[in-house]
Amino acid sequence: IFPQNLIAGELSKEFWQDAENTPFYAESNAFHDFEFLLSGPDALLARLEVIESAQESIELDYFVLKDDRAGRLILQALAKKAQEGVKVRMILDHFANRTQFNKYQVQAILNSGIDLKFYNTALMKPYQSQFRNHRKIIIVDGEKALMGGRNISEQYFELHEDYNLADRDFIVSGEIVKAMSETFEAYWESDEMGQRINLPGDDINGGRFIRRLRQRHAQEMLIPRIDDLNFLRHVEFIAEGQNVERVTKSCSDLIYVSDRPEVGNRRIEGKAKLSRKKVFEFLKNAKSNVVIESPYIVLDNLKSELLNELLENNIHIKLKTNGVHASNMLPVTAVFFDQIGEWVDRGVEVKVFNGETIYSTRGLKQRKLSSPGDVPIFHTRWGSHSKTMLFDNEWVKLGSFNFDPRSTIWNKEHALFCRDKELVEFIAKNLDERGQSTHHINSSKDIDNYEFENVNGLRALGYRILKRPSTWIQPLL
């Protein structure tokens, strides 16, 4: 599973110089504006605003776009801009979205003027199907990009009635966006893309009664209805009640890396996984401390070797991830708790998200607001989904890269690295604020105390059943 040359710190300067001649690696010392989106409802509104601002082009690349209320708002906004003459192109991962849209809905999306392609349709080939496109970005007019860890569905915008995911997005403006757009173009033109998949035919108005009914339902997905408008009012209401401000920062020392779109060819693996190589290079070159925040942390042999080297060099390591109650991937969490005891004993600082909301409801209660639709969701189960790394309080890594084998080997990821003291201090402070909803694991005893906190009996049973098999499939997690 793990080629011997994965540790990026062993790469030569020539490797990165050669990478600069591709769309997948870029450095910039120009001034860039950042606007951080810390609230889920506001992050959804920001996406709608960014899409509405487009004058010439919209490029959207996502791992998941669900056919729920949040997904429909995004699709309707894209269709509106396409009808206004804006060039709209969308890339979705095929495996993650194969059950989200039926063939009539795909046809309706194409008919609306949105050009749609799916990444890696090789579902029947066990090895090739493991390679997924996990990137998440919206690029507008080649000038600004909305990037981060959120997929597009209600739970990623903290609007789901059962389970929500806290995350961190940002809007960046500056010359580095050109590289992001060029990378999107490279994916779009890649041989790994499929387009007209399982379509009912070009004549969407013909057919029998059931066919016409399905066609009408598919077309309605792209037309704003009363329910959609009420949901939008609800999102605005929640965002106002949370009162989480967008924070603006700047940076003039940036590196952007993206994995290549190739699938299943190990001979190009060394050149394909630029995101992993850059992340590992930053880790290997750390001088004092590193912080790794990821919803999915699996310390396989590769990462264990890297952490060993950091500890031998007296580098302080802080890991932050989800506990059992907060997790949406129990196999990953089971492996993490199975592994983490020895690392805690060796001095690695570990915090686990406890599944409680990161927001205070006090402001909403004091104002006695009434929702125009659903009741605001604050007391559901929560998890963390943000993927952030800090290096020596000097550099920050943002993007889609998790600290697990899927991001290390299988998934196509991208990451933006920034060196700016004020921006790094802001991210560190935000990490600490969210840390109020975490438990500090200081010993193996703490693992026993917190592993099943707030976990109901059925979930605990499933977790115990999965725990041992999860270690067997660790390279696929």
Could you explain how this protein is built, in words?
- The model is unreliable at 1-10 and 361-375 (pLDDT under 50).
- The protein is α+β, with helices and mostly antiparallel strands and 477 residues long.
- The strands form three sheets. A nine-stranded mixed beta sheet has the order 1-12-19-18-17-13-14-15-20, sandwiched between helices. The protein has a nine-stranded mixed beta sheet with strand order 10-5-4-3-6-7-9-2-11, with helices on both faces.
- The protein contains 17 helices and 20 strands.
- It has helices at 13-19, 40-52, 69-83, 94-97, 103-111, 176-188, 209-220, 226-242, 269-272, 274-284, 301-312, 330-345, 362-367, 405-410, 421-434, 444-450, 457-472, and strands at residues 25-28, 32-37, 57-62, 87-93, 114-119, 137-140, 144-148, 163-166, 169-173, 193-194, 247-251, 254-258, 289-293, 316-322, 349-353, 381-384, 388-391, 395-399, 414-419, 438-441.
Brief write-up:
This protein is 38% helix and 21% strand. With 477 residues, the chain is an alpha+beta fold. It is globular, with a radius of gyration of 22 Å.
